[in-house]
Specification:
The protein contains three helices and seven strands; from the N terminus they run E-E-H-E-E-H-E-H-E-E. It is 22% helix and 20% strand. Helix 2 (73-83) packs parallel to helix 3 (99-114). Strand 2 (24-28), helix 1 and strand 3 form a beta-alpha-beta unit.
């Protein structure tokens, strides 16, 4: 059974942690640059490379897409993760910067949930949990607040 899939997106950089050695890592476009800067070797690199240079030499699987496409690079990574059986997906560096991409990454998380995954987006000061028909325990964090928003008609 696959472990967790970690997707490193191309929004504003935030710490990419905690990473476990058994995590499967996908870097998207500028997320590859963030992975390199964080000494992380991704298993797969996906993107159109409009935000950073395409890697010339890599041991990672490389999937290059045209700039004109229907999915964002992060959505392409989500599709890859789901197609390969991952149902626990963590996304880093997905918020901040361009609002349209932050919003698209939230939609990407909802897409994953509708296909049976539990998705978490981690940012420097924010953690977003996306799930359906399940529950989680959220540890108490000093000086942090908790808000619940439903993407459907009910949230408990």
């Amino acid at each position: 059974m696959p472990q967790r899939c970690v997707i490193i997106s191309g929004g504003i950089f935030s710490p990419i942690e905690p990473i476990q050695k058994e995590d499967f890592i996908i870097a998207c476009d500028k997320g590859y640059q963030y992975a390199v800067e964080s000494n992380i070797v991704p298993h797969v690199i996906i993107g159109d490379f409009d935000s950073t240079r395409k890697p010339e030499h890599t041991s990672s699987e490389l999937s290059v897409f045209p700039k004109e496409k229907d999915d964002t690079d992060t959505m392409l990574a989500m599709r890859y993760a789901l197609e390969h059986g991952y149902r626990e997906i963590s996304i880093f560096c997905a918020l901040g910067g361009r609002f349209d991409h932050s919003y698209a990454n939230i939609q990407t998380a909802a897409f994953g949930v509708k296909r049976g995954a539990v998705v978490t987006i981690y940012d420097r000061n924010t953690t977003l949990y996306f799930m359906q028909n399940c529950s989680i325990k959220i540890p108490r964090c000093k000086d942090r607040s908790l808000s619940l928003f439903s993407l459907s008609d009910r949230c408990q």
